[in-house]
Amino acid sequence: MNLSQHFGRRMIAVRHPCHQLGALRHCFMETGGEQLDSGHRSGTMADVAKKIREHVGVEGGYHIIPKSRDGLLKFQPKQGELPNRSMLDSQTTAQVLLETDALLRQRFVYGRGLLRMGRIIEELDLLAVWICHLHIHLPNLPKGVPLPYTFITMLVDHAHFMQDKFIADADVSLSGHVSYTDNNFMEVTAYVRQSGMLLAKGIFVIEARDAINNGPAPVNPLVPANKLEERLHQEAQKRHQERAKALYRLESQQPTKEEQQLMYELFTRTKGDDGPSPSDMTTLPPNSRWMSTWRRRTLMHPFPENRNESNTIFGGFIIRKAIEISYMTASLYSNQRCMIRFIADVTFAHSIPVHSYIKLKAYVVFTHENYIQLLTVVNAIDGNSFTELKCNVLHLTYSCSKAVPEILPRSYHEALWYLTGRRYFNRFRKSVSHDMANGSPPKTDGAKKDNK
């Protein structure tokens, strides 16, 4: 059964006015190349969530005061006690059974039948944590003692999506492995496939913390075991070096001379024929919109069901909610249904306690042909003190089936946001040419191992 038969609707194709991206889209669907596969299978994503709880010794159900894990601190190893690990040691695959589980499928689809990419990346974030569990090996940990670690998502470096190629009535396969380690950090590369085709890819940075989440914990060094692992490790090392740069985050960079010229050109386009005057400083060109009028916000109350093992709100849940408000904002802006293509630099500045409120704000900051670039900010309001903290920033790229109106800044502050959006859109185009051309693996490399 195909998707149109299942949901009784006409499929909508997404046009690609940008020929470069259209060509790269085909590369993303190729099934040639090499794939790291250890043969390890972790069952369904429900099994993965259960295994994580068992590994860390967390009791089922919600407890306002969780069981103390202070007694596990004495089992935290020194860095020198940890043996080397390869990528195959952490590589695993898990399933989302959409074909046979109608109730699960209902949680993963929009009203018109498209798969919800927010749900997909939420599951991918959970899998990344499980992959870190598989990577950590403590040879001196007594049998039966829970893992004295806590894992926190610090960053989603970037993620690609081919949303229009997913179908709602076929199983989804999630896989991944640790691709880089540095003291107490691990980079996890994760893939999403359906019917053998690679349809999404994400890079996560996970921090290892001690049993009570009070300080860093060492991780096993990653040593590539073969040529494929060496190549993947070199790519990850380049990403790590970029992240280590002081000006890595694109919004923190000062405007270049080229960008300053662009800002002036935007000003001349919007000052009107007679130039700016005290009563009217700006004039909106045809088929364009002011950035100041295109922002959407909402306030929500998360619940214990949205928490992780540390009794804070699960990072994947936060990303999903940010994707949902950005999707609605992009769709309302374009007056058409949009597809998410790219997320970059999803930061986690503060964890969100389970008793907090979450404020989400989405801004349209840049447009190009049929693409919309959004900046989404997630703040937390503490349910006890009612103080507000900035917790997350996301940069998202959406595509539409038709060209969209141009977004234009009206102030210097908005012009800086416009430049930031333009930088992230250019990063999307650059990243897509690399990940889509080189990131589609199927030949396997590595021996099978027993499922953990």
From TrEMBL:
Keyword terms of this UniProt record: Hydrolase, Repeat, Transit peptide
Every HotDog ACOT-type domain range: 292-404
GO molecular function: fatty acyl-CoA hydrolase activity
Gene Ontology terms: biological process: acyl-CoA metabolic process
Signal sequence coordinates: none
Superkingdom of origin organism: Eukaryota
Name of protein: GM14023
The species this protein was found in: Drosophila sechellia (Fruit fly)
Lineage, broadest ranks: Eukaryota, Metazoa, Ecdysozoa, Arthropoda, Hexapoda
